[in-house]
Amino acid sequence: MFRQASRLLSRSVSAAASSRSTTNRAFSTEVPSTIDSTFVESWKKVAPNMDPPQTPSSFMKPRPSTASSIPTKLTVNFVLPYASELSGKEVDMVIIPATTGQMGVLPGHVPTIAELKPGIMSVHEGTDIKKYFVSSGFAFLHANSVADIIAVEAVPLENIDASQVQKGLAEFTQKLASATTDLEKAEAQIGVEVHSAMNAALSG
Amino acid sequence: MAMTVFRREGSRFLPSIAARPIAAIRSPLSSDQEDGPLGVRSISTQVVRNRMKSVKNIQKITKAMKMVAASKLRAVQGRAENSRGLWHPFTALLGDNPSIDVKKSVVVTLSSDKGLCGGINSTVVKVSRALYKLNAGPEKDVKFVIVGEKAKAIMFRDSKNDISLTVTELNKNPLNYAQVSVLADDILKNVEFDALRIVYNKFHSVVAFLPTVATVLSPEIIEKESEVGGKLGELDSYEIEGGETKGEILQNLAEFQFSCVMFNAVLENACSEMGARMSAMDSSSRNAGEMLDRLTLTYNRTRQASITTELIEIISGASALEAAK
């Protein structure tokens, strides 16, 4: 009986040790948990009777670590305030409208933070090309071939109405001409930029 | 046969019945006892009946409020879940640093405007106060930005000097990104900060709300930390496309991050408010139902006691007449 108990004990101890080591390994991704533990400790000192609040990293799946060789596919996360348009989609290439011009992103791209201007974003998967008109936002390209694109507003190119674009362009050009204050000028200029980009997107 | 029972146990019965109703309605004494046509006293059920009517009305109201909250929850829940992916890229890039040590922290507390939503506002205020204690120090400064009437009312009492901005009536119109980005812009313009800590209730399920704190750092701190190394050390390895300087891009990035995180936080808080209101109103209507059951029993007891008293009086009167014959 005691022999069995010791066996059980050793099994449970080794299981606990291995589970602890596996959880440690699971946290060795881009977001380590060391800062969270200092937060929890300092919280306990200040408010011992209250549970510490959650932090966003506990609600997020950990990101894959940087592979040693360049992966074949690019993982794209394209998010908008009202929806996650693409999440974790594996594609071959993405072309994003950065402020410095159209930028092509392939797997193994150098880590980059790019600010986006209004323009077309296209997602290439084999022979499939999906085009979106993006208003503006940011794109993060990570070392592990994950591309995060956050846009304020994006519509598939098919949904844009050409006549409305022309009307909007004319309206904003007129507003720019008749603008008096700096704020009005800036607003009209933004309108002109976005509409002319949409025009170019529809025609080009 | 019932009558014989009463006659035999008349003397035993009477005091016990008389004692109980009087004990039950001891407080509003005068209104209970009415004088009948022959000066006969009968115990009134008016008080209990009034109470039952008001409790039933309360039950109806709380049930209706629960339905309203449930329908509003259904409307907001979809949008909140869709907006959850919005801050993942920022946390993946910049990491999550709740315990970062900065000189100026600003705690943004999100709460509801209306009450009757359970304990969510008080938990948010408790977390905010604990964050204040955590981050206040000799050279360090903590200010509050309060969104929502309820937190304003609670925090005005003791932390009035530390509140720099209050925003109310956010949920009057359906929430959308443009409105929240205007709010974020307002906060960024009016408050100096090194780190913004947004405290809100994350909607886990209809009965579970987790108080959460999301940290957004100012661009200067991000640059400093990335140079020092450690958590944000990898940030230096990222190339910057567009814009003139890294500082400019980081500024835009920090502002964009703040508005995205705020948008998600405001939606989650609205969901939590509806969920908490649903469960609060549900337990309230259940309580009202139980109270109604107990009152019904008391009502029946009172009613039966008065009937019994009347019967006994009639019967003893009749038997007295018979004995006299």
UniProtKB/TrEMBL annotation, chain A:
Is this entry keyworded Protein biosynthesis?
no
Q: This protein's superkingdom?
A: Eukaryota
Is the keyword Ion transport assigned to this protein? yes
Spell out the subcellular localization from the entry: Mitochondrion inner membrane
Which GO cellular component does the record give, naming just one? proton-transporting ATP synthase complex
Where are its TM segments located? Answer: none
Q: One MF term in GO for this entry?
A: proton-transporting ATP synthase activity, rotational mechanism
- List the PANTHER family hit by this protein, alphabetically: ATP SYNTHASE DELTA/EPSILON CHAIN, ATP SYNTHASE SUBUNIT DELTA', MITOCHONDRIAL
Say what the protein does.
Mitochondrial membrane ATP synthase (F(1)F(0) ATP synthase or Complex V) produces ATP from ADP in the presence of a proton gradient across the membrane which is generated by electron transport complexes of the respiratory chain. F-type ATPases consist of two structural domains, F(1) - containing the extramembraneous catalytic core, and F(0) - containing the membrane proton channel, linked together by a central stalk and a peripheral stalk. During catalysis, ATP turnover in the catalytic domain of F(1) is coupled via a rotary mechanism of the central stalk subunits to proton translocation.
Q: Which family does it belong to?
A: Belongs to the ATPase epsilon chain family.
Task: Relate the assembly described in the record.
Answer: F-type ATPases have 2 components, CF(1) - the catalytic core - and CF(0) - the membrane proton channel. CF(1) has five subunits: alpha(3), beta(3), gamma(1), delta(1), epsilon(1). CF(0) has three main subunits: a, b and c.
**In its UniProt entry, what is this protein called?**
ATP synthase subunit delta', mitochondrial
Question: Which species is listed as the source?
Answer: Raphanus sativus (Radish)
Automatic annotation (TrEMBL), chain B:
A Pfam family found in this protein is: ATP-synt
Key word DNA damage present in the record?
no
SUPFAM superfamilies assigned: ATP synthase (F1-ATPase), gamma subunit
Q: Where in the cell is it found?
A: Mitochondrion inner membrane
Chief localisation class? mitochondrion
Q: How does it sit in the membrane?
A: Peripheral membrane protein
Q: Which GO terms describe its molecular function?
A: proton-transporting ATP synthase activity, rotational mechanism
Q: What is this protein's function per UniProt?
A: Mitochondrial membrane ATP synthase (F(1)F(0) ATP synthase or Complex V) produces ATP from ADP in the presence of a proton gradient across the membrane which is generated by electron transport complexes of the respiratory chain. F-type ATPases consist of two structural domains, F(1) - containing the extramembraneous catalytic core, and F(0) - containing the membrane proton channel, linked together by a central stalk and a peripheral stalk. During catalysis, ATP synthesis in the catalytic domain of F(1) is coupled via a rotary mechanism of the central stalk subunits to proton translocation.
- What is the recorded name of this protein? ATP synthase subunit gamma, mitochondrial
Protein's organism: Raphanus sativus (Radish)
